[in-house]
Amino acid sequence: MDKAGVSFDRMRTFVRVAERANLSMVAKELGVGQSTVTRHLKELEEAVGVALLSRTTRRVTLTEEGSRYYANCLQILRLVEQAAEEARDARQAPAGAVRLSCTAALGVMHVTRMIFAFQDRHPDIRIDLNLTDERIDLVREGVDVALRLGPLADSSMKLHAVGESQRLLVGAPAYLSARGRPERPADLSRYETVVMSNVAGSNQLHLFSPDGTSLMIPVSGRLRVDHGLAAREALAAGRGIGPTHLWLIHDLLDDGRLEVVLGDYRPSPVPVSLLIVPERAAIARVRLLVDFLAAEIAKLPGIRPS
User: Which Pfam families match (predicted)?
Assistant: First the structure.
């Protein structure tokens, strides 16, 4: 292996190409010409002595050797960046960028204001906020921290449990007056339900009775949405009833636009978690943001701290 040919710049170029699978996109991100990207890849492959990428007119894919090399490069580059960050943090106030991914409705209604307050305290920290309900690959997308609602699969990410989000079954007063208010859980199957299409098992309503008994009620509705803010609007407009997070509709309850249905029966709560890329967890600005968000989210209506 030609060690002189293995530079951090070439490794960074290779990593971004492996993640984006598009040379022109990477060239634009890095602010260089596509010929520079191609040259970096060629020089890196010559240095390590194996083909790392398979290129056609349409696609760029990793070879088997390239996949292993990508994983090692990613770890090396993150460690190099972390070392520089920690050295800089020891000398001065935290500065730089943090990439945060957040579930969309929570981000729009609450987290954006939290970020404003955080940046007022730490004006040299930049926040790149990505709002999505998709379970993205943090490392591949270059995200440092993700705020997630719901159960988590096994993950190599560092987990900071924030708490549980309490949910209520709600409906608009006009809708409930027109249809009659349900008196027991079995009645719910006769009502229109605003269904979240991106939530597994949303064709059944999982409720807990006052004595802790678990109930599963089949539900259906003519309206299916994949965004919490759309569900909020649909419920307020009287398009049906539905389970929803208290932090999402607490203002609508306060001003009477929504009311609780079968208040003694509660939908199952939802875990709230912050996931941190392990190699980024020790960086001061990342730690500051995680601690700040955890404390502020725990104050939201319906959030029961862990």
Answer: HTH_1, LysR_substrate
